[in-house]
Amino acid sequence: MSRFCLTNDRLSTHRLALHRLSLHRLSLRRVGYVCALVGLVAVSGLSMAQTDSTTSLREAREAAETRDQQRLMGFIDDQQALASALEQARAENEDAQQQYEALQAQQAEQAQQAGELTERQSEQGEAMSGLLASLAQHSADIRNELGGDSLLALSEEALPPRLDNVEVLERHQLEDVVDRLAALTASTGRAERLELAVADANGDIAPQTVVRLGDFAIFSENELLQRSEGDGGLAVLPRTPRQIGALLPAYFQDESRVFAVDPTQGSVLEALAQQPSLWERFQQGGYVGYVVVALGIIGLVVGLGQYAYLVLVSMRVHRQRQSLGQLQTNNPLGRVLLRFEGMDKHQTSEALEARLDEAVLAELPKLERSQPMVKLLAAIAPLLGLLGTVTGMIVTFQAITVFGTGDPQLMAGGISQALVTTVLGLITAVPLLFVQTALAGRSRYLTHVIEGQASATLADHLETHAPAHTVT
C-alpha cells in the first residue's frame, strides 16, 4: 500500500512537473513570439504595414494555444490510463496479500501438527519406534513375497498395509496389520469359491466363479487358472494337464473331494502342461516321420488284406478236404486236384509227379503275394528312422552354431525330430515283421496242405493202377 501511495505521489509530482513544463514551454514560446514580433516589427518596419503584422501575430498565438490544448488533453488521457493501471495493480496486490496470509496460516497449522507428532513420537519412546520399524519391515517383506504371483494376494485389501512412511504408530494400523496377517494365514488352508474376473485364451475378460485352494491352485469348472505377469489378474492356463483336468468338474460341482495339489507352487503343473500329446509328438518327427508312418500304414493294410485272403483260402481248403469227391475251383487244392484228374494217367509216375508239382507251384504266387512288400517295408522303416535321426542332429548342430548352447529350447526341435523318427521307425517295423511272419506261416501251412493232399492223391492213383500194369 505504501508503495502504491508513493507511486501516486510521484504521479502527482510528475503531472505537476509536466504542467509546469508546459507552462514554461508556453512562456518560452510566448517570449519567442514576442521576440519574433519585435524582430518582425523591426524588420518589417521598412517593408510591411502595421495592421498586417498584428493579424499574423494573433493567428500564431491562437495556433500555439490550440496545440497546447491538444497536448493537455493528451496528458489528461494518459492520466486515466495510469489510474486504471493503478487500480489493477491495487487489486493484484490485494490478491497476493490474501494468498500470503493463507500460506502463513497453513504454515502455522503444519508447524503445529509437526510439533504434536514430535511430541507424541517422543512420548512413545524407543520401544514403539522399534515396533513400528519391525512392522514396516515385516509388512514390506510379505507384500514383496506374496504380491507377485501368490494366489492369496488377488486383491490389494488382502495384503498388509505399507508402513514405510508412517512416523507415529497408531492403534488402528497395528490392528489392521495383525488382522490381515491372520486372514492370510487362514486363507492358506481354506477352499473358497470366489467371483473374479478371468481372461480367457483370446484375452477377453469376464467374471467367472472360481475355486481357490489356499495358495496351491485356483481353477474354474474345466480349466486351471494362473496369475498374469503384467497386471496380476487371473488368466486361463494355456494347457491344463489331462490328469488334473479330469478331476476339476467333479470337485467344482462338490461331487468329489479328490484333487491333485502341486506342492512346488506350479512347477510340476507346468511340466505336465508341457508334455506333448500323441499328435504333437507325431508332428515333432517332421517330414521323415510322416513318410515312415505312411509306409507303415500301407504295409499294414496290404499285409492284413493278404492275411484275410489266406484265412478265407484256408477255410475253403478245409471244406475241400472234407469233400474230395466234389472238387471246387474256388480254392487251390480243388484246382490242383482238378488239374490232376485231367492229366493223362498213362504217363509214368515221375511224369505225373512232375505235373502235379507244377500244378502246386502254380498256386504258390497267390498264397505268397504281398510278403516281399511287407518284408521290404519292415526293413525300410528303421532306416528311414535313422535318416530322421541324422537330419535332426544336423538341425541341432545348426542351432548350436547360430545361437550357442545357452538356451536348450533352441536345440529341442532337432533332438525331438531325431528321437521321434527313430521311435516311429521301430514302431512301424515291429508290427510289419509280425504281419510278415504271420503271412509266411499261413501260406506255408496252406502249401503243405496242398502238397500233402496232392501227394496222397498221386500215391492213391499209383497204388490203384500198379497191379494192372504188372498183369499187362
What does this structure look like?
16% of the residues are buried. With 472 residues, the protein is mainly alpha-helical. The chain has helices at residues 2-44, 50-146, 171-187, 242-245, 248-252, 267-273, 278-283, 286-322, 332-341, 349-368, 371-403, 409-471, and strands at residues 191-199, 205-213, 217-219, 225-227, 234-236. A hairpin with a 5-residue loop joins strand 1 and strand 2 (205-213). It has a five-stranded mixed sheet, with no helix packed on it. The protein contains twelve helices and five strands. Mean pLDDT is 80; it is low at 1-14 and 40-49. Helix 10 (349-368) runs antiparallel to helix 12 (409-471).
Question: Summary?
Answer:
The protein has 472 residues and is mainly α. It has 12 helices and 5 strands. The protein has a 5-stranded mixed sheet, with no helix packed on it.
Topology:
Layout: H1 2-44, H2 50-146, H3 171-187, E1 191-199, E2 205-213, E3 217-219, E4 225-227, E5 234-236, H4 242-245, H5 248-252, H6 267-273, H7 278-283, H8 286-322, H9 332-341, H10 349-368, H11 371-403, H12 409-471
Helix pairs in contact: 1-2, 8-11, 8-12, 9-10, 9-12, 10-12, 11-12
